[in-house]
DNA sequence: CCAAAAGTGTTAGGGATACACCCATGG
DNA sequence: CCATGGGTGTATCCCTAACACTTTTGG
């Protein structure tokens, strides 16, 4: 079976499945961090010059949150990832530019006119925080291109996915939690400078080096490890690691 | 037509309507404030000893947020109300205790077995902030009892509505905004003490009288009006009013 | 020894907290 | 004139911002 034929088969199975909750979908804004830049992971539709946030549908007998995790896994092979619901998008016209329809036409897959894929649907938006260095493997069952984009250099996006990314980022900024964000977006070991650059990328503003260090250390959520020698002619920075919740010592309880 | 027959008619029309988005609903946690207590507005199902948060369905050609406002109006005759989405509830088992089914049985309305009302559905949760003193008029088209409940004395609730109320309250606490909450939950004019009691009810903890006053006044979002004489033998408190956004003078820009 | 970057110290200011005091009101 | 509750003043603490200084590293 050729690649194209396989894709067609997968797509056909998808729209003919009766087990999905109709008129409802899930979309997942995946944030990563690399070289001082905040990134989102996007997929490109086959044969179309449009990108989108990874999404999927909900089985009739599946919890919404489970469907989000499954969708994320199927589209990116990521599991055990920080995942949080942030907003449900329900404007009537949000799916007007119906990419799915074009896709089906391209592949000559016939779908009845009143099939729900042609109608409006409402999408529950999730965001995920993933370690950029771990996300090198992606499936190609839909033969979409999968790529990280800098948050400030997004390509043309399908539906209302641009708004989704913006709203997801705002949510991230507003509900900023040092431990959750740092421990999910950075590799296991990191320098203070890397951690600082992460927060600067998310907040979109510079922070003072020494004050940032003091503040984050006072939270007692980091463990200082060995020094990291880069070979450059300056003092070597320490590496740090986020403590597990069980390791965290709150000074208030230390007597 | 008797009351009961009318109710039956309404219910019948509801389930036979083809224009709703299937498997999806809206629920609205309505917060009010009265006599130093935070309240929620609940409806009682006819013939059942179960209460619920006002809810409704979404028309196929209707924006999600518009549907929430319409639902709120239909159930409570409230309009121009502060309304905000906070979470979408999608566990498979959340509607297992199917109140709708019992209701239909009670009224002897036959619905086909595979009608969506019998299946799982996902509900988008909104919360509303309303002035308790304005909410004296309610429709009775479903002949439900409509009543305010103290947040700490909730009756038995249908589905996962207890969880909804809790989650809505948490959202309110976390994203507390003095202006939005105060100006929607209090009448137009109020004393500083009333405002303080409102925040104490929401936060669930006592605040210091004088510090609270200083803090809220420093925000420059209040206008001091005439004194309010209660007849008691003590200094009369001022009345205050929230400024419109256009009236607010930010000290940073005053030169 | 020097430049570059990391780590630590030190001071000033703003906001929150806790306490105290004065003022208006009606009996 | 007194009890009561409302309004304002003030000292303290703590967190943060801003700046300065010391330490480490490889050339």
From TrEMBL, chains A, B:
* Gene3D superfamilies associated with the record: Nucleoside Triphosphate Pyrophosphohydrolase, Winged helix-like DNA-binding domain superfamily/Winged helix DNA-binding domain
| Top-level lineage group | Bacteria
Give all residue intervals belonging to the Nudix hydrolase domain. 21-171
- CDD domains linked: NUDIX_NadM_like
Regions annotated as coiled coil: none
Q: Name one Pfam family in it.
A: WHD_NrtR
List the PANTHER family.
ADP-RIBOSE PYROPHOSPHATASE, SLR1690 PROTEIN
Indicate what this protein is called per its UniProt record.
NUDIX domain-containing protein
């Amino acid at each position: 079976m050729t690649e194209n034929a396989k894709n067609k088969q997968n797509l056909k199975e998808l729209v003919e499945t009766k087990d999905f909750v109709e008129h409802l979908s899930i979309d997942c804004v995946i944030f990563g961090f690399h070289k001082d830049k905040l990134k989102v992971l996007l997929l490109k539709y086959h044969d179309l010059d449009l990108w989108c946030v990874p999404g999927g549908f909900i089985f009739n007998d599946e919890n919404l949150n489970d469907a989000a995790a499954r969708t994320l896994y199927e589209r990116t092979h990521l599991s055990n990832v920080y995942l949080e619901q942030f907003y449900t998008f329900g404007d009537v016209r949000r799916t007007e530019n119906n990419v799915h329809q074009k896709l089906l036409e391209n592949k000559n897959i016939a779908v009845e006119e009143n099939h729900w894929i042609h109608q409006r649907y409402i999408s529950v938006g999730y965001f995920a925080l993933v370690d950029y260095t771990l996300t090198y493997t992606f499936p190609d069952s839909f033969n979409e291109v999968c790529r990280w984009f800098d948050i400030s250099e997004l390509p043309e996006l399908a539906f209302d996915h641009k708004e989704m990314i913006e709203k997801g980022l705002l949510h991230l900024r507003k509900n900023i939690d040092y431990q959750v964000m740092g421990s999910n977006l950075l590799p296991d070991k990191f320098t203070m400078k890397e951690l600082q650059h992460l927060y600067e990328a998310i907040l979109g503003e510079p922070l003072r080096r020494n004050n940032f260090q003091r503040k984050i250390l006072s939270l007692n959520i980091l463990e200082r490890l060995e020094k990291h020698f880069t070979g450059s002619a300056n003092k070597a920075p320490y590496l740090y690691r986020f403590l597990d919740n069980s390791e965290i010592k709150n000074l208030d309880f230390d007597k």
